[in-house]
Amino acid sequence: MIATQLGLVAGAVTSCAVIPQVVKAYRSRHVRDISVWQPVILVFGMCLWLVYGLMIRDIPLIVANFFSIFCNAALIAMKLFYREG
Question: What is the phi/psi pair of residue 27, to 5°?
């Protein structure tokens, strides 16, 4: 039980790390300095972790990676949508 709670807190903290970048990109519409490859590689890795979490039925892995995939996918979409020049 404590391991699950610790996993959920750890997942929430690390998953929230991308939120300031997503918010800043959304508000400023400025994404030139963001490399598209960093979130693309992260999403790929997180998809693998998500599949692993689903296979072993680990709720913290599933929730944290699902949320992180969503946030990083939003960052990728903004990078492509707000392209400059």
Answer: -70, -40
Query: CATH number of the domain at 2-81, out of 1.20.1280.290, 1.10.10.10, 1.25.40.10, 1.10.1660.10?
Result: 1.20.1280.290
pLDDT given at position 47: 95
pLDDT at 56 over 60: yes
Q: Which helix (H) or strand (E) holds 71?
A: helix 59-81
Q: The whole model's pTM is what?
A: 0.83
d(CA 73, CA 57): 23
Statement: residue 85 has pLDDT above 70:
no
Round to whole Å and give the CA distance between 12 and 32. Answer: 28
Cβ atoms of 75 and 39 within 8 Å: the answer is yes
The 10 Å Cβ neighbour count of residue 77 is 13
